[in-house]
Design brief:
alpha+beta, BirA Bifunctional Protein, domain 2, Alpha-Beta Plaits, 2 domains, 7-stranded mixed β-sheet, 4-stranded antiparallel β-sheet, 14 strands, globular, binds adenosine-5'-[phenylalaninyl-phosphate], binds magnesium ion, Fdx_antiC-bd, phenylalanine-tRNA ligase activity, protein biosynthesis, ATP binding, mitochondrion
Length: 384
């Protein structure tokens, strides 16, 4: 235990040195392709759209500071390696919550993991007496695959407490004031970034805030969820030694906001090294992304009988590990249960498409073959 505490102290200040991510621990499920993304820090790369949007948000809060709001301290190089304590326990996330499961989260060992959200920094910061801050960082989730979901993405966390609120007011009344302040602050942020855009508030649930809300923006014909937020639960603040003060917190998806701001149609593009992508963006400048290619997609289906503890996130991971950014989307197209044997069958459709070049059918067939073999070998499914 002493050793893990020492590690934690070092994680807090170092961004380039990581302990071994692929450990010998039986619980370790960090894949090579994920490990390769740790430390890349796209949100700190000059002229990268994630860096540009991060700076825009920071400027907005600096502007509020100039108008008399407290200064938000900014952290953008905290280590993504965290603990179940910081990431879940301290945020009152139930022991059996899905986000803790190894099917959803990348673990180094049973108590050390890649952060699933920047909220893992809330309690450590508050405990240090830092009550007004922004944290930007890479987060990791084993998730579905499509144009707006990627297993590594970036979040910005914001936390603000209100010691100035009259402590003789009933707690519920102060919560209401803080909630309205939160909504106005985030609406102002969206407006300062986008000008006029269509947005709406949706009631939500997070174990660490009450009330909780999500903000959606209308983009390309659909409502896109861009952030979650709420009023910090009293016991969380108190556990961090912030007594009888009410505060708000939000966590937003930097990719989602950048997609809207720059018209970037696919989340994989953020990882592109292609100069045709990278040279389109410049610090401090907002331009619309000009697609430089739309190569045709290639679809491949795979049908199989499920194994006992089949979980689709394991399948997504295998596909992603083999096909990398050539895979655009994986979706279930058919499912049924055999009436006699009760066996369950599923068919997944994989959409392959490369952003930078044409894929040949032979090339995709070869990848699909490896995918099929790997599904059998790793998931124990039976191909049909
Ligand atoms: C959270 O992660 C909470 N920690 C947010 C929060 C913070 C709530 C503080 C209350 C107080 P959620 O899982 O909804 O919530 O993710 C937050 C945002 O991250 C989403 O609104 C979305 O913009 C983005 N996001 C979530 N999953 C992905 C993904 N797979 N790819 C890209 N962006 C994602
Ligand atoms: Mg959400």
């Amino acid at each position: 235990f002493g050793r893990s505490l020492a590690h934690r102290a070092c994680f807090a200040t170092q961004s380039t040195h990581f302990p071994e991510l692929i450990t010998g621990d039986p619980y370790n499920n960090v894949s090579e392709s994920i490990a390769a993304k740790v430390g890349v820090n796209l949100h700190c790369q000059p002229n990268h759209p994630l860096n540009i949007i991060k700076s825009k948000i920071v400027s907005y809060f600096d502007q509020l500071h100039a108008q008399g709001q407290p200064k938000m301290q900014v952290f953008d190089n905290l280590s993504p390696v965290t603990t179940t304590e910081n990431c879940f326990d301290q945020l009152l996330i139930a022991k059996d919550h899905v986000s803790r499961k190894a099917t959803d989260t990348y673990y180094l060992n049973p108590t050390t993991l890649l952060r699933t959200h920047t909220s893992c920094h809330q309690v450590p910061m508050l405990s240090k007496g830092i009550k007004n801050f922004l944290v930007a960082g890479d987060v990791y989730r084993r998730d579905e695959i499509d144009a707006s979901h990627y297993p590594v993405f970036h979040q910005m966390e914001g936390v603000r407490f209100f010691p100035e609120l009259d402590a003789t007011l009933p707690y519920e009344e102060r919560v209401e004031i803080v909630k309205e302040h939160l909504k106005a602050t985030l609406e102002g942020m969206v407006e300062s970034i986008f000008g006029k855009v269509e947005m709406r508030w949706v009631e939500a649930y997070f174990p660490f805030t009450e009330p909780s809300l999500e903000l959606e923006i209308f983009f390309e014909g659909e409502w896109l969820e861009v952030l979650g937020c709420g009023v910090t639960r009293r016991e969380i603040a108190e556990n961090a030694n912030v007594i009888n003060e009410v505060g708000w917190a939000f966590g937003l998806g930097l990719e989602r906001l950048s997609m809207v701001l720059f018209d970037i149609p696919d989340i994989r593009l953020f990882w592109s090294q292609d100069p045709r992508f990278l040279t389109q963006f410049q610090d401090g400048v907002i331009t619309k992304f000009k697609p430089y290619s739309k190569y045709p997609p290639c679809y491949k289906d795979v049908s199989f009988w499920l194994s006992k503890d089949f979980h689709e996130n394991n399948l997504y991971e295998i596909v992603r590990d083999i096909a990398g950014d050539m895979v655009e989307k994986v979706e279930i197209v058919d499912a049924f249960v055999h009436p006699k044997t009760n066996r369950e069958s599923k068919c997944f459709r994989i959409t392959y498409r490369h952003h930078d070049r044409n894929l040949t059918n032979e090339e995709v067939d070869a990848i699909q073959l490896v995918v099929r073999e790997s599904l059998v070998a790793n998931l124990g499914i039976e191909l049909r």
